[in-house]
Amino acid sequence: MGPRIGPAGEGPQVPDKETKATMGTENTPGGKASPDPQDVRPSVFHNIKLFVLCHSLLQLAQLMISGYLKSSISTVEKRFGLSSQTSGLLVSFNEVGNTALIVFVSYFGSRVHRPRMIGYGAILVALAGLLMTLPHFISEPYRYDNTSPEDMPQDFKASLCLPTTSAPARTHSNGNCSSYTETRHLSVVGIMFVAQTLLGVGGVPIQPFGISYIDDFAHNSNSPLYLGILFAVTMMGPGLAFGLGSLMLRLYVDINQMPEGGISLTIKDPRWVGAWWLGFLIAAGSVALAAIPYFFFPKEMPKEKHELQFRRKVLAVTDSPARKDKDSPSKQSPGESTKKQDGLVQIAPNLTVIQFIKVFPRVLLQTLRHPIFLLVVLSQVCLSSMAAGMATFLPKFLERQFSITASYANLLIGCLSFPSVIVGIVVGGVLVKRLHLGPVGCGALCLLGMLLCLFFSLPLFFIGCPSHQIAGITHQTSAQPRPELFPSCMEVCSCPSDGFNPVCDPSTRVEYITPCHAGCSSQVVQDALDKSQVFYTNCSCVAEGSPVMAGSCDSTCSHLVVPFLLLVSLGSALACLTHTPSFMLILRGVKKEDKTLAVGIQFMFLRILAWMPSPVIHGSAIDTTCVHWALSCGRRAVCRYYNNDLLRNRFIGLQFFFKTGSVICFALVLAILRQQDKEARTKESRSSPAVAQQLLVSGPGKKPEDSRV
């Protein structure tokens, strides 16, 4: 992600005052410091292992706060009346600030105090997390029954069928709309957009500066191990975010200002809104605590001198063939090893900011001319688009498709999906390592993984629940219900147009938006041992006037959510098999001096083409399946009901589209690699007789000037 400029060890490095005391151990036997009275005992923060530990915890907390909004996206939509397109745009703004500044990390990487910059970025992330909670504290308490003029008690009587003479009193909810109300709504939404932007800006220096710092001062043999530990711990962040969301959404949103009489909602009620803001407070506090050690780490520290013992033993067994091949003189001649080309990585430290901006487009176009690099990046764009849409809206999809609670959906995703992603990445890396895969092998592994992922995605189109039968809504073509579409039995009632208090007729499994739309004129509360059940009676729109139960009708196929998510998790693991081999293809597809910049360009394209637009695209597709919108001051707010079949086909169809694009790109990559490998073998076979002739002419005691093929 745009690490520092230039490889480690290039150019003179002047240690600062914090590290002078420890530099004396470099040139003495056994690593012992010279008996200089001015020497100071090294600080505990002059330890790269401690930095790896701190950075793992910081990136874990950062990804937890970045991913927490995705776990509560449907709750935020209900609380503030947002469409899926708007909530997708809100998620995308996390990448706006990050994308705008990530390129400059390549410029400032070797010129600043990296640990302190990481600390400043983490503090900004924590402040942005606190800013995300501000809308909760400046908004009025949540009213789950819009027809109630008072905050509490918000009882079920407000939705009963009343005579038409009371109609003026039942339409007051939209009458409360004013310019102040609209301005306050826009301010609340604007605050969340600003907070998401600051979250992205604060995360800019954390990963690239941390990776380059570890690579600079860790032992060359230990650096891959440290980075592997860092990535493994970091990958648990999104899973913890969904676990935290599962816990927080079980608490009522206004837990800090509960009414005296309590609330009449249960967690299964479709109007339930959980304490989404509480998770941001916890995650922001974690980031702030993790940021403290970075203000004590030095700008530079002595490079680690010893390889880890257990790693040395493992490599002695597993890496001997690869190490011999790596050390073979046929890989690179001494002349080539010292030859440096004028890439941006080498010249950037000598450029001003303006010169850097001017030269960047030319180097960008030069890098994109590599076909392997371009195709692999395009395939990763497809995969990232799939992942961004899935991570953002999968909890909401499971809620709507299988009629489960937001808390349960987050729990399933945190326990199944994200662990499978980690397993897929690890298995992909192990296969590349164990099988000693070259470029062609990496391309074949990527293609095989994506083909299997595509195959296991097909059953997802057929695993789902049908839409609930909603009186007056299910069979209409218009997205907004009109009063004349409801049964004539409710004409005597003055039902609110924007009311939402669903009830279910258990005999026919027909759902009504409110008891008023079912023609019910009274209610009965039956107390049980653990909870009370509310029934509405005297319902003129229900056969034989049977009572109806409060709440939405239960789904008959909620049990299918587990096999559905197991297939999703399996597909995610297969797709993540391509992570390591595709990264290796990028590193081997460009020149050595352009590798650092190529990685930065890769992440920039992933953000611009995938992580930014994908949530908006998925949110827009979800909105097209809505059959009943809630109204807020005359505008469309949150969607109340979806067409489940359309929702499943369009959401899974988008995923299938991006997976197909990735398969096509990897197929082209493999075809190009095979062609290049064939041409290389042909060239090698032609040059072999010339080398043999040169050996015969030079005689047995002489060596040719250059026998490298």
TrEMBL record:
Residue ranges, annotated region (Disordered): 1-38, 319-342, 680-709
Matching PROSITE patterns: KAZAL_2 (PS51465)
Record field: transmembrane: 89-110, 117-138, 188-213, 225-253, 273-297, 372-394, 406-432, 444-464, 560-587, 608-631, 651-673
Gene3D superfamilies named among the record's database cross-references: MFS general substrate transporter like domains
Keyword field: Cell membrane, Disulfide bond, Ion transport, Membrane, Transmembrane, Transmembrane helix, Transport
Coiled coil: none
GO CC field: apical plasma membrane; basolateral plasma membrane
Family: Belongs to the organo anion transporter (TC 2.A.60) family.
NCBIfam families: oat (TIGR00805)
Name used for this protein in its record: Solute carrier organic anion transporter family member
Organism: Macaca fascicularis (Crab-eating macaque)
Top-level taxonomy: Eukaryota, Metazoa, Chordata, Craniata, Vertebrata
